[in-house]
Write a structure and sequence with these properties.
Chain lengths: 454, 621
């Protein structure tokens, strides 16, 4: 696309507006969140008697500065460049994931890190962006075929490669992020609601089926007979066979009777059950029992207060003890006394809640809300479908991280090891978030079809 | 701009609606999170704040020093505390992935099995900061080895844990008892009393058990603000302590000189010696052989020692003075004699002819002298311990009811109430008892047996000593006591001292007792034991006993006596009861041992000095 001057009288006005509407609001929010992050990483690094245990906060400052440079660089390029090279960027990230899997550094039992010496990156973080770019480009290209299920399945294939590679690391939490991104991007790109619903229901039901036996064994306190039924290993096969039978009958009826409409939905739901059950059986084989336990424990952390429930109880205690205005910066007992696990990364929000209280939390919520809602507004404002899809995907990524991480620290979501963007300690996740926001700004900046900057 | 024409293919409106739906979801989520956060931070905030404080404050126990036990002289301790160490593991600081390997190395250093360590720590404890004791009573040298390699054992710590140490005669083991780790059942029972934790130690036997509440004191608590790794925060607020209160000291009635004398006099014979002061009930010495070594129970090889002692068929843990009962044999004749004198059923001067046997029912009962004692009155029959005399009088003139009644008046068949646990009742049989126990009616032969202290009658050596005390005191005896007074551990002041408490007051004439004393003295000077009771240090009055247990040529050897025979100062009198079980080779040892004990007590001599002074044939090497 080439900008043509003097196309209409309002043209010069548009150019001025473009420059003025560089999205400073979103940038200020990002910088505020990163600043809050550095402060509380410092708080988690220091003990109550003033001993500094770690210099994570200085590293985070360096990363944040580099991140700002990265953001500037990304804003320079027209985002259309990324659309053009989407497939190559995607392939590079897939190759990095494969290399990570083969040669990555093992941290806490999984290979997530790629790097030399102490400088390492987590390709699984950046792969989120590259996947969003490719998926956005793919949906933009097939925008007139969005109602077809085949388009959706091809889109699913795009996220499947990174997901499988990340699951193999294994890093369930990060892999999990791809599904909501895919669903929301498909939804906003114009896929049929029932197709999106179908995939969402399969995903949710698979998870539910995986945790059902554990839930009944550890948390449910009802009749013995009910527990025995759900805990029995034949439980899945009973459901699978029933689902298959209903599906076969419905399919038969769909094709050979006149009331096809009803049987379409019979088939729709029964096939969800069948696929979810198969997914659950596979999930049971792949997942370790402690991982499944983590998915359930948030429902009642007290069943294992010193084991899987420990993080929850400590985190909720920290959050709850904050009160309205908090205990004051650096004065948190739970964090400074190191009761909180992974406090600078996954549980950083607990420290914030403890030290600056409910009011501070509202501030953090508000800043996130600005970024996410602005992100979705940018998706509407974008001049083309790629821009829309890109903004939608990135906003969803930030939203989902926000939802899962904060939900985990306040005890209403399972512990998945997903960091809180902008705030949690870690270069890879910080850069991913900043690159994402840079892309949002980029889309917004070039939201007019005809402009000098384009 | 290839996509340009597709841009609105779904309709810009559809796109807007869908994205607005997502924005509404986002807003709803943030509002929900805010409300939820409000509920836990503001509504339930105080609850969480309390919890945060309790998590950060950790208490550690400062053990109270256990009281020291002295003998009646209150000079040298019998039991005290010496330095020792315990090794703990703090599970939260442990590297569970290498736990197996670490446990192996640690077990090597501590000299225990790896499984002992592994079984105490489970992965479920991995966030627990409360230390778990792995082993106690560790020598300083072992701790040195551990300290040199401590960097290889993260989460392993040690602390000083004083252990008990026994000094003085070994035969005190039954009286003093020992302490050990509290069992789950004991903890359940004692928990409500407060001050007990699963790591507490508790008296398991003897004085240590009976007076545990006095000896143990009260553990202190140190509150520390700690971080999640259990590390203390130096100057943090809220570091305070409840100081421990040391246990109180006990002074026993035992005289360790007499204890040692008695122990040596009995020698390595299964049996007992009890020496008591009849005027107060104080126990001066109490020996039960075999005994055990409490110090070995506090050593690093405690569990092996415990099992070997438990497996010993001679039951060294048994205090035979109070925990087992025996037929008193002929010693019992002093009670039969009291009945004869008191009830005037048969004139004391009237004689009965002993021909060596008597025919009752369908069988013959033999006197221990097969040829017969000839004609004897009460004093002579008592001195010669003639069974025929007592059988005849017992069956024809006294009857079982009177024997049972008088036995109870002397305290037989009931606990004496001595202040160590585990005492048994003994048994005073009656026709009703026999019928209800064996469903066999009482027969004449049973009365014959009980008249001479055989048959179903069973007493503990202590009961017998206390029964003799009643004769000495002429109508009263006291609850036997081992603890004389409780003293403050710091000032040494007497906090509580125990006054004699009457146990039995028999309504028997004093004259009867004086006559009984006479025949007991006569028995020593003219009767069976005169050849062995050679001591000149005091005037002994007593009675021998030889009770049958069913072995062909072995008997229980008894000697129950007191000295001096008559005195103006009742506080100098002592009762000595010696019992040597029939499992030993028969050597009629009880009166011989008593001879040495009386000599030692009244001449104020040690065993060796007493033996030298007596210079009798049976004590020569």
């Amino acid at each position: 696309m080439s900008g043509t001057l003097g196309h209409n009288p309002g043209e010069s006005k548009v150019n001025v507006k473009t420059n003025l509407n560089f999205d400073f609001l979103i940038l200020i929010s990002v910088i505020s969140l990163v600043f809050i992050g550095v402060c509380f990483i410092y708080s988690s690094n220091i003990t109550s008697d003033g001993t500094i245990l770690s210099n994570e906060y200085t590293k985070q400052i360096v990363w944040a500065l580099i991140g700002l440079v990265l953001m500037a660089a990304i804003i320079m390029f027209d985002y259309k460049t990324f659309e053009t090279f989407a497939i190559y960027i995607y392939l590079v990230s897939i190759v990095l994931l494969v290399i990570t899997l083969l040669f990555g550094n093992v941290v806490n039992g999984s290979r997530r890190w790629l790097g030399i010496m102490e400088f390492g990156i987590q390709p699984s973080e950046f792969a989120k962006i590259t996947t969003i770019i490719l998926l956005g480009a793919f949906y933009a290209k097939n925008s007139n075929a969005m109602t077809r299920i085949t388009t959706l399945l091809k889109g699913f294939l795009i996220i499947l490669f990174p997901v499988v590679l990340i699951v193999l690391q294994p890093d369930m939490g990060t892999a999990l992020v791809y599904f909501p991104i895919f669903l929301v991007m498909s939804f906003t790109a114009g896929a049929k609601v029932r197709h999106v619903m179908y995939i969402a229901l399969v995903g949710i039901l698979t998870m539910v089926l995986i945790v059902i036996p554990v839930w009944f064994r550890h948390i449910y306190s009802g009749s013995e007979a009910v527990i025995n039924f759900f805990v029995d290993s034949r439980f899945y096969y009973i459901i699978l066979i029933s689902g298959l039978a209903i599906m076969a009958i419905s399919l038969f009826a769909y094709f050979f009777t006149k009331k096809g409409f009803y049987y379409y939905y019979f088939t729709y739901f029964s096939s969800i059950i069948v696929i979810s059950t198969i997914g659950a059986i596979i999930g049971k084989m792949v997942l370790k029992s402690y991982q499944i336990m983590r998915l359930v424990i948030f429902l009642d952390p007290n069943i294992d207060p010193r084991g899987a429930g420990w993080h929850f109880i400590q985190s909720i205690t920290a959050v709850g003890s904050g009160g309205i205005f908090g205990k004051g910066f650096l004065n948190g007992t739970q964090s400074n006394l190191r009761f909180l696990p992974q406090q600078s990364t996954d549980f950083i929000f607990s420290i914030i809640a403890e030290e600056i209280g409910f009011m501070g939390c509202l501030l953090v919520f508000f800043l996130f809300l600005i970024i996410i809602v602005r992100g979705y507004m940018i998706a509407i404002a974008a001049k083309d479908l790629f821009g829309t899809n890109l903004a939608s995907g990135i906003s969803t990524m930030i939203l989902f991280h926000f939802m899962v991480n904060i939900g985990m620290t306040i005890g209403i979501m399972p512990i998945t090891g997903i960091p809180l963007f902008f705030i949690s300690y870690g270069g890879s996740s910080l850069w991913t978030a900043m690159i994402g926001v840079a892309l949002l700004i980029n889309v917004y900046y070039r939201r007019y079809r005809f402009s000098l900057n384009a | 701009m290839g996509n340009g024409s597709d841009y609105y293919s779904n309709g810009k409106e559809t796109l807007k609606v869908r994205i607005f739906a997502v924005i509404i979801f986002t807003l709803a989520l943030v509002i929900f999170y805010s409300i939820y956060l409000y509920s836990i931070q503001v509504v339930k905030g105080s609850e969480h704040r309390e919890r945060a404080v309790s998590v950060a404050r950790r208490e550690s126990v400062i053990p109270a020093l256990r009281g020291i036990i002295y003998d009646r002289n209150y000079d040298v301790p019998l039991v005290t505390n010496v330095d020792s160490f315990a090794v703990d593991i703090i599970p939260a600081e442990l590297d569970f992935e290498r736990f197996d390997e670490i446990a192996g190395k640690l077990a090597n250093i501590l000299g225990i099995r790896k499984e002992d360590i592994l079984s105490r720590i489970s992965p479920r404890m991995r966030h627990q900061h409360r230390p778990v004791e792995i082993k106690d009573r560790i020598e300083f040298e072992t701790i040195l080895v551990l300290a040199e390699n401590i960097d290889r054992f993260p989460g392993v710590v040690w602390r000083s844990k004083p252990k008990r140490a026994h000094y003085g005669p070994g035969s005190l083991s039954h009286i003093l008892g020992y302490i050990g780790n509290i069992s789950r059942e004991e903890l359940q029972v004692l928990f409500n009393r407060g001050g007990f934790t699963p790591n507490s130690e508790i008296g398991k036997m003897g004085i240590e058990r009976e007076y545990d509440h006095i000896l143990r004191g009260r553990d202190g608590l140190r509150y520390n603000t700690v971080d999640a790794r259990g590390r203390k925060i130096g100057d943090a607020r809220g570091n305070e302590a409840v100081l421990p209160i040391a246990g109180k000291n006990l002074v026993l009635t035992i005289d360790r000189r007499i204890q040692e004398l008695s122990e040596k006099a009995l020698g390595e014979r299964i049996g007992t010696v009890v020496v008591m002061r009849p005027s107060t009930g104080e126990i001066l010495a109490m020996v039960s052989y075999p005994w055990f070594y409490p110090n070995k129970l506090y050593s690093s090889a405690a569990s092996q020692y415990f099992s070997s002692v438990s497996a010993d068929t001679r039951f060294p843990f048994l205090n035979r003075n109070i925990q087992s009962s025996y037929s008193p044999g002929s010693v019992f004749k002093f009670i039969t004699s009291v009945i004869i004198i008191e009830e005037e059923l048969f004139p004391q001067r009237e004689r009965i002819v002993c021909r060596g046997r008597i025919h009752v029912g369908d069988r013959f009962f033999h006197c221990h002298k097969r040829t017969g004692h000839g004609s004897l009155d009460l004093a002579r029959a008592f001195a010669e311990s003639c069974n025929i005399y007592y059988w005849t009088v017992g069956r024809e003139h006294i009857g079982i009811d009177r024997i049972a009644d008088f036995s109870r008046r002397f305290g037989l068949g009931q606990r004496t109430g001595i202040d160590i646990p585990g005492e048994v009742r003994g048994l005073v049989p009656t026709p009703e008892w026999k019928l209800s126990t064996f469903n066999i009616p009482w027969v004449g032969g049973d009365t014959l047996n009980i008249s001479i202290g055989e048959g179903f009658l069973e007493t503990t050596p202590l009961q017998l000593a206390n029964a003799i005390s009643m004769v000495v005191n002429e109508g009263v005896n006291y609850v036997p006591r081992l603890v004389k007074e409780i003293r403050d551990p710091v000032s040494g002041k007497v906090i509580e001292s125990f006054e004699p408490r009457a146990l039995n007051k028999a309504s028997i004439r004093g004259e009867t007792f004086r006559r009984t004393q006479e025949i007991m003295r006569y028995a020593v000077t003219h009767g069976t034991p005169r050849v062995v009771l050679t001591t000149r240090a005091t005037q002994v009055a007593g009675k021998t006993g030889t009770s049958e247990v069913g072995l062909a040529d072995r008997w229980i050897s008894w000697f129950g006596a007191y000295a001096p025979y008559q005195t103006d100062n009742p506080d100098e009198q002592v009762v000595v009861v010696v019992m040597v079980e029939a499992t030993n080779d028969w050597e009629w040892w009880a009166p011989k041992a008593s001879n040495v004990i009386f000599q030692g007590i009244f001449a104020n001599q040690t065993f060796e000095q007493a033996v030298a002074a007596l210079n009798v044939w049976y004590l020569r090497p």
